[in-house]
Amino acid sequence: MLEPSQHAVQGKAPRIFEQLVVVLSQRLASGAIRPGTVLRTAAVAREFGTSRGPVRRALDELQAAGWLVGSGLAYVVRGPEHRPEGDASPSVAAVPPRIAAEASWARIYSDVETTLVARMSFGSWRIVEAELADHYGVSRTVAREVLGRLQQRGIVKKDQRSRWYVPGLGRDYMADLYEMRRALEPQALVNAAPRLPPGLAQSALASIDDAIARAEELDGTDLDRLEHELHIDLIGHCGNRTMVEAIGLYQSLLSAHSFEPFLPEHRTVLERLVAGHVASAADALREHLALSLDRAVYRIEQVRGLVTPAPVSYLIPIA
Question: Edge-to-edge, what's the strand order for the sheet holding 38-40?
């Protein structure tokens, strides 16, 4: 039986995926959605006017509860012999809650951003605004709003003819990004040091030591978390919001391409910081970022030679 959400129990508004679980499980239990029906993530997102992320999470929960089989893009409703025993509907009011409306651009922003950043390693891409709108079933105005916000984050740019494009992560562009990181992050670390909550640096150092001890077991999620602990969480205490936003931008552009042997270098930074040698820690961070550039460029060149990205209707490779 699906349990009511903690938010509902505590009187707080349930999150979108929780509301979707309620609505869909009621339809499944009543037979309104019949066995064998294919539930496609994109179609469910369009029906409820929300983004695909909450839909995937809701469908994953229903799959875990035994109602569906599948994952990712499409799920199939299972027959009665596979259904959960008892009443599988969450114990909430009989009238399905109304899904909270999102701004139209917000419903597709995350998916567009992920698609573009994942393809920056493979070169530059022209974005066809009309095709983008058609791909997501939104207006040109909404597509333009998404691209404008991505432009503010440096993910997309406009050429001399005002056409949208995604700049590829070539050596020159990577060098520019890392130069900005080397300028900003060591100073942010110096500024953050006296503002750090007690024990934060020690905790980050312990995480690195644990990761080094089980390095062969680490996956991409672990590495992302460790990168985030130093370059976002710890440095984020620098007290300069503009600096933090700029660092977050460069980190987001590079994090998808950041699977490198950085653990010993992070440890050196954190060990010096814990010891109170802040300037030396900043120097170690600057050296780490300098070493990271060549590794990142090499890694991207290797990926280009081994992988061909799936075509996307609104993207055209720029030769």
Answer: 38-40, 74-77, 68-71
Whole-angstrom distance, CA of residue 226 vs CA of residue 266: 9
pTM (predicted TM-score): 0.58
What domains does the chain contain, in order, with CATH numbers?
6-82 (1.10.10.10), 104-168 (1.10.10.10), 171-306 (1.20.120.530)
- Report residue 128: phi and psi, to 5°: -95, 105
With 70 as the cut, is the pLDDT of residue 9 above it?
A: no
Contact (CB, 8 A) for 77 and 34: yes
Let me know: does 23 contact 101? Beta carbons within 8 Å. no
Round to the nearest angstrom and report the end-to-end CA distance of the chain.
54
**Tokens coding 272:** 């010096």
Q: How far apart are CA 68 and CA 61, in angstroms?
A: 9
d(CA 253, CA 237): 21
Say how far apart CA 72 and CA 95 lie, in whole Å: 28
Which DSSP symbol is given to 315?
Answer: E
> Residue 317 corresponds to which tokens in the numbers above?
């490779």
CA pair distance 256, 250, nearest whole angstrom: 11
**Average pLDDT value over all residues in the chain:** 82
